[in-house]
Amino acid sequence: MSAMSYSPGGRVAHWFYGIAVGFALFSGFGQMPIFKRYYLADIPGLGWTANYYATSDIHYLAAALLLGMLAWRLALDTRTTGAAWSWGPRTWWGWTLLGLLMISGAAKVLRNAGVFLPPPLIMVLDFTHLGSAMAFMFTGLAALVKPKPKPNLRGLVS
Amino acid sequence: MANAISRRNFLRGGLAAAAGVAASGVVLPQAVKAAGGQELCTVLDLSKCIGCEACVDSCRETWQDTVPDPVSPMPKPFPARVPTQDWSKRKDVSDRLTPYNFLYVEHLDFEHKGQAVELHVPRRCMHCVNPPCTNLCPFGAGRVEKNGIVNIDPDVCLGGAKCKQACPWHIPQRQSGVGVYLDIMPSYAGNGVMFKCHRCLPLVREGKQPQCVQVCPEQVQSIGLRPQMLSQAEAMARQKAAADGADPNKWRDYVYGLEENGGTNTLYVSPVPFSVVSAAIDQAHASAAPGGGKGKGAAGKQGGKRRKAGFAGRPPMRPVANSMESAENLTTALVLAPLAGLAAGFTRLFGKKPPSEQPPQEQPSSEQGGQS
User: Fold this and answer.
1) What integer pLDDT is reported at residue A151 of this predicted model?
2) Is the pLDDT of residue B133 over 50?
3) B200 to chain A, minimum CA–CA distance in Å?
4) Residue A127 burial (10 A CB sphere; 0-12, 13-18, 19+)
5) Which chain B residue is nearest to residue A130, measuring alpha carbons?
6) Residue B9 has pLDDT above 70, yes or no
7) Residue numbers in B near A69 (CB within 8 A)
8) What distance in Å separates the CA atoms of residue B284 and residue B174, rounded to the nearest whole number?
9) Alpha-carbon distance A151 to nearest alpha carbon in chain B (angstroms)
10) What angle do CA B212, B214, B217 make, to 5 degrees?
11) Minimal CA–CA distance to B258: which of B233, B282, B223, B225?
12) Which band of pLDDT confidence, cut at 50, 70 and 90, is reported for residue B303?
């Protein structure tokens, strides 16, 4: 590893990314009517998971944190060399999924703000968002158990 | 009241046929058709409604057969506490919303300023301008058409009833044992299809008026472009307020749907303030028989717990805050967050190298860069 390498934000950024992804996935799955059906909302302290408006707000906040971090990483990569990112996707596949999630999510946010989008497009966006999120989750889980590759110091796409 | 009921029963029989003759009212106004793509809005003048229920009958005759009958036996959902709802053997129910009845009329008798008032309120989907039922549907089954009509695609809906919970009026109604969920994992995901008023979307697409507008003998409803309908509702409400002895500038008190849930494309105009109408409806529901009028009401539990019987399938008329307000506000956060991130990155905020990692020349380093 280069002596110039360093980890921007350190463990704090690492944890923020984990929290943002975790809450986005959890609140995203909570948009399907499953938490009440399958007793999760019955667990003391988790009753709010059956409130779609609460999980929607959490989804927005998690997405905002994630977008902020990714934008920070993108901008920092253009200004600084030698950053060794300890968080984020490590493959094109991961970044592609994240890109799909952002595009479909942004369109859904516009729709929720009252912008008209054709119903067939909405359905494509919904299933793209859901499918990408599931693929991202399973890819992430697989990455946790498989051996980590050597870090790429450039970071953005590694 | 007895007179009113007999008049209503008398009118019910012949009105559907009479309305069919009123050809001039069948098509949408030319200006509305020409403006295709703009939001359509209906205005209901409640002082005209005689409670004949011709609209209900016509709606049922036109659309009830489009709602399929469930398979038999119906799949048992897992876990067992998940309720199935079957209205297929109670299609005759017309005094509340059911999957087979998209419209009913609330008949009210109450006092206002010492006078007895009889009011009839047709109730159906409000067709919100920014409907949470549709926005929050995770599968795109909820649809908002360009003409503002809010509808549910029965070929996509899985019957999870999220739309019903998201709707401030709990309008959509579930029929279990029908729909695409039967072909996926019928016991473990989905529970039927949600049904509600689609404002006669197939007819509107042909340039015709919705059935409930067409057949009304008193022209209670009018339909048109939203800006025009807003103006019409205001003009009517100013007259109602003045006639009620109130300041005409208080006309908003006499309109329901103007601000409810952020605004709806159904506007009710009443001869008395809606605070009074709402109280009368709440009182009627509190003392009403269970939904369905006779015998057992709901054909299943309502959202996992029984709602008070008189309220099930009968929406209130209280003030309703904008359900999408929080999401609309958080949109700002979603726009600002990446901008803040870019600014922080370009100014190297939180990204400066520690002094110990800025040697004049490259050296072997033990700094970890492992990515999780």
Assistant:
1) 55
2) yes
3) 17
4) middle
5) B138
6) no
7) 341
8) 24
9) 5
10) 90
11) B233
12) very low
Question: What are the residue ranges spanned by the domains of chain A?
Answer: 10-145
The Cα–Cα gap between B314 and B85 comes to 16
Note if the bond before B316 is cis, omega within 30 degrees: no
Q: How many residue pairs bridge chain A and chain B with CB atoms within 8 Å of each other?
A: 202
Sort out which chain B residues have CB atoms less than 8 A from A106's CB and list them: 334
CA dihedral (B221, B226, B230, B236) in degrees, to 10, reads -20
User: Please, what CATH class does the domain formed by B2-327 belong to?
Assistant: alpha beta
Query: For tokens 């990112």, what's the residue?
Result: A85
Q: Taking 50 as the threshold, does the pLDDT of residue A147 lie above it? A: yes
pLDDT tens-digit readout, A83-100: 889 899 989 999 999 999
Task: Report residue B143: phi and psi, to 5°.
Answer: -130, 140
Could you tell me if A133 and A101 are in contact, meaning their C-beta atoms sit under 8 angstroms apart?
yes
The stretch B40-63 carries a mean pLDDT of 98
Number of continuous H segments (helices) and E segments (strands) in chain A: 4, 0
Domain ranges of chain B: 2-327
| Tokens read off for B85 | 């709802």
Closest residue in chain A to residue B335, using alpha carbons only = A64
Q: Which residues pair with B142 in a beta bridge?
A: B152
A44-58, B22-36, B200-214, B253-267: the lowest-pLDDT one = B22-36
Nearest to B365 among A3, A32, A118 (CB): A3
Q: What is the pLDDT of residue B19?
A: 41
What tokens appear for B231 in the block? 């103006």
**Among A77, A69, A87, CA closest to A18:** A87
Q: Is B45 helix (H, G, I), strand (E, B) or coil?
A: strand
Q: Is the peptide bond before B73 cis (omega within 30 degrees of 0)?
A: yes
Residues of A in contact with B371 (CB under 8 A): 84-88, 90, 148, 151-152, 158
| Inter-residue contact B40 to B147 (CB < 8 Å) | yes
